[in-house]
């Protein structure tokens, strides 16, 4: 979520402290951690937190935005050397892996991506680009939407949570899904 007007210096400091505190709390306790704990760690009142971030999803998206930006850029660079179906496969696998940074993030991935931070936009645009490319190449069915892909990443991420080797589990589940949506 971006503000139209620049923040006052004290408000900007509060925002930065909230984001730093949220990062620490979400990494330690997961995406469902108490927002009161975030406010306390940031040294601000809960009202200040909610003025900057009216929902948990808004705070999650803002805290994760830079990671989403890096993810989208890496996906774009990686996909240049891949066929269209492999580009979608890599995107899905990496997005599922990214949700494991904050335990519980997978459950709200779809709503977090809709918040509108630069990272959310970049991740969504990259997914749309890869899906469109794969559909135009005839590699993925034309009735598949980005929402379908996000739902599947959510399900795969939830299934892999707590797995001893999430990367191999995610790759296996993505393969099962892509076998079902591939054009034969």
From TrEMBL:
<dbReference type="InterPro" id="IPR001647">
    <property type="entry name" value="HTH_TetR"/>
</dbReference>
<dbReference type="InterPro" id="IPR036271">
    <property type="entry name" value="Tet_transcr_reg_TetR-rel_C_sf"/>
</dbReference>
<dbReference type="GO" id="GO:0000976">
    <property type="term" value="F:transcription cis-regulatory region binding"/>
</dbReference>
<dbReference type="Pfam" id="PF00440">
    <property type="entry name" value="TetR_N"/>
</dbReference>
<dbReference type="Pfam" id="PF21597">
    <property type="entry name" value="TetR_C_43"/>
</dbReference>
<dbReference type="InterPro" id="IPR049445">
    <property type="entry name" value="TetR_SbtR-like_C"/>
</dbReference>
<keyword id="KW-0804">Transcription</keyword>
<keyword id="KW-0805">Transcription regulation</keyword>
<dbReference type="GO" id="GO:0003700">
    <property type="term" value="F:DNA-binding transcription factor activity"/>
</dbReference>
<feature type="DNA-binding region" description="H-T-H motif">
    <location>
        <begin position="34"/>
        <end position="53"/>
    </location>
</feature>
<dbReference type="InterPro" id="IPR050109">
    <property type="entry name" value="HTH-type_TetR-like_transc_reg"/>
</dbReference>
<feature type="domain" description="HTH tetR-type">
    <location>
        <begin position="12"/>
        <end position="71"/>
    </location>
</feature>
<dbReference type="InterPro" id="IPR009057">
    <property type="entry name" value="Homeodomain-like_sf"/>
</dbReference>
<protein>
    <submittedName>
        <fullName>TetR/AcrR family transcriptional regulator</fullName>
    </submittedName>
</protein>
<keyword id="KW-0238">DNA-binding</keyword>
């Amino acid at each position: 979520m971006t503000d139209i007007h620049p923040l006052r210096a004290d408000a900007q400091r509060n925002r930065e402290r909230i984001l730093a505190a949220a990062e620490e709390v979400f990494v330690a306790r997961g995406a469902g951690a108490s927002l009161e704990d975030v406010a306390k760690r940031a040294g601000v009142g809960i009202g200040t937190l909610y003025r900057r971030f009216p929902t948990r999803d808004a705070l999650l998206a803002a805290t994760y935005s830079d990671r989403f930006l890096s993810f989208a850029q890496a996906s774009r660079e990686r996909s240049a050397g891949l066929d269209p179906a492999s580009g979608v496969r890599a995107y899905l696998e990496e997005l599922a892996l990214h949700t494991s940074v904050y335990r519980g993030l997978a459950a709200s991935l779809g709503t977090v991506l809709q918040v509108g931070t630069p990272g959310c936009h970049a991740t969504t645009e990259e997914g749309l680009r890869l899906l469109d490319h794969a559909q135009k190449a005839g590699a993925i069915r034309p009735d598949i939407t980005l929402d379908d892909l996000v739902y599947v990443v959510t399900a795969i991420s939830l299934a892999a949570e707590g797995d001893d080797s999430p990367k191999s589990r995610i790759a296996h589940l993505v393969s099962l899904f892509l076998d079902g949506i591939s054009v034969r």
